[in-house]
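User: Quick sanity check before I run a bigger batch. Here is a single chain. Can you write out its predicted 3D structure?
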Amino acid sequence: MDPERPVEMAVVRELCALATWAPNHKLTWPWVFAIVVGDGRARLGEVAADAMARHGDPAPRVAKTRGKFLRAPVVVAVGTLPGDTELRTAENRDAVAAGIQNLLLGATARGLASFWSSCPKGANDPVAAAVGFPAGTHVTGLVYLGWPSPGPTPATIERPPAEIRVVDA
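Assistant: Done. Predicted structure follows.
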């Protein structure tokens, strides 16, 4: 991914809107988005790394996290709002995951490179607060977006065949 080549904000907003077309049980609209660009990416890395250090992660991993959000010109934090029950919260998270897939497919269709990362262990609440999400929000994904650099792409990486079972009784 080319970290220097910007992605138009209108495109990123369109991809976030595309995510909201994912199905969501009871029409809870559980997703929240934060578009992190410029110096905000370094700040996000500091927040995540500091949380990891407090959590006891190894120093090399903490150091790597400080700069990892600078790998792409845009990082979209995607959060799941809590539901009114444990079941609704789980359904909300499933819906947000489906929404992230929509976002990734839309990015690919536009020729962008993308990568879905989870929030570092122990960093959910500080990261959620840093991007302005409401308390209790689960950071379901940190999506890196940018223009591709030369090298392997998901389409050229060989994958194992799908394991499929047919149940007829």
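The chain has five helices and four strands.

User: Great, the batch can go ahead then.
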